[in-house]
Amino acid sequence: MVRTLLVRGLTVFAIGAAPLQHPPVNPFAQSMADFKSRVNDYMKLRGEVTKKVPEIKETGDPAKISAREQALGRAIANARPTAKPGDVFGGDMAVYLKQIVAEDWKSRSPADRKALLSELPKGVNVDVNQPYPTTLPLVSVPAKLLAMLPMLPDALEYRLIERHFLLRDRDANLVIDILSGVLPQR
After folding, report:
1. How many domains in the chain?
2. What is the spatial distance between Cα 50 and Cα 9, in angstroms, rounded to a whole number?
3. What is the pLDDT of residues 66-120, one digit of tens each?
4. Which has fewest Cβ within 10 Å: 49, 54, 67, 79?
């Protein structure tokens, strides 16, 4: 008899229970979490590849530093043969990043805008899995804009070139991802 009541009680509870409700997801927070996951995936791959590229013992020789940088860049690029724009910046994060850059741009004075555009290298083609051209200056993302962007691990940095927003691996001097069309036409 107890068993029957227990079964009936569970049956009534199961029938009368409301479906599980999931709290609404903040789309920006989800995009940030997805972006962080893609960055972490890259950093894991990078860590595995870095173990295979010998460290240099003498850091005073620029040729040896450059040779290791190039070897690390090639090794990472070879480990991501299908890498393409949007692999890290992709999804809704690309939309949010463009909005952040656009808001920063609107908040700048005409003189600031002109100064920023004059610093950016012109007529340069960059691509994912390619070295950042060593003949170009490394134009930093302005501090005010940088403060609005998602934090990155120390090995990665944001860069601006032409109208492109780049994710660059510092040690490998490798372009990890590109978001095009973030700044207005000149």
Report:
1. 1
2. 60
3. 999 999 999 999 999 999 999 999 989 999 999 999 999 999 999 998 888 888 8
4. 54
Q: pTM for the complete prediction?
A: 0.82
Q: Are 133 and 147 in contact (CB under 8 A)?
A: no
Distance CA 140, CA 59 (A): 24
- Examine residue 10 and state whether it is found in any structural domain, yes or no: no
Would you say residue 134 lies in a domain? yes
Residue-level pLDDT at 7: 46
Q: Which two tokens stand for residue 49?
A: 């590849």
Residues of the chain falling short of pLDDT 50: 1-15
Say if 110 falls within a structural domain: yes
Termini Cα distance of the chain: 83
Inter-CA distances, 64 with 58, 68, 184, Å: 8, 6, 40
Q: What is the CA angle 135-138-143, rounded to 5?
A: 170
- In this structure, the chain runs to a length of 186
Task: State the residue for tokens 């609404």.
Answer: 24
Residue 167, burial from CB neighbour count under 10 angstroms (0-12, 13-18, 19+): buried
Residue 36 lies inside a defined structural domain of this protein: yes
Please report the pLDDT score of residue 64 as a whole number: 87
Domain extent, residue 157, equals 27-179
